[in-house]
Amino acid sequence: MKREVVDDFKIQRVKARATVFFHDGEALEGSFFVSPVSELHSGRQSIAELLEEDRSYLPFESKAGGLLLLSAGAIERVALEKAGRATGLGLPSDISSEKKARVRVTLLSSRTLEGTIPFDMPPSHARVSDFLNSRRKFFTMIVKGRPNLINHRLVRSILLL
Which helix (H) or strand (E) holds 139? Predict the structure, then answer.
């Protein structure tokens, strides 16, 4: 009887595939668990929205099959499915922004990434620096055609190209 009551309160989640990178170079392929309904738009929650939640640990199912609790603060970046293949599987809403800045990001781990940062800001705050100084924990960067969510706290510098 108790099991049925607990199941009634269980929050439905769906899997969203991604590759998670940590500052030590380790990479994990697998899936985050996102809500089938976003609080911010129609459709399911994106991985970007999940990473912005006030949670210290995020459930993640590795490709090998293990269920892990990942420290959100230890995630250097998350590589999402390519935009053409993803069809809403965790893509951030800013990926379709018309404004883009070409950049080279140097992470605290000394790795560098080159790509574009899509951003949408009001005309009074239309610089890429305004976007990067927003209160978000992760920002979107397209690297070799693949959306990546970069942890602001693990970035050393950003060079505008």
Answer: strand 138-143
Question: DSSP character for 26?
Answer: -
Tokens 């209160």, located at residue: 135
pTM above 0.85, yes or no: no
Cβ neighbors of 57 (< 8 A, separation 6 or more) are 69, 70, 71, 72
CA pair distance 160, 42, nearest whole angstrom: 34
Query: What is the model's pLDDT at position 27?
Result: 96
Q: In this structure, which amino acid lies at residue 137?
A: K
21 token code pair: 């990178």
Are β-strands 14-22 and 99-107 bridged in parallel, bridged antiparallel, or unpaired? unpaired
**Over the chain (161 residues), what is each successive 10-residue block's mean pLDDT?**
54 90 95 86 86 95 94 96 51 67 96 92 78 89 94 96 95
DSSP annotation of 22 reads E
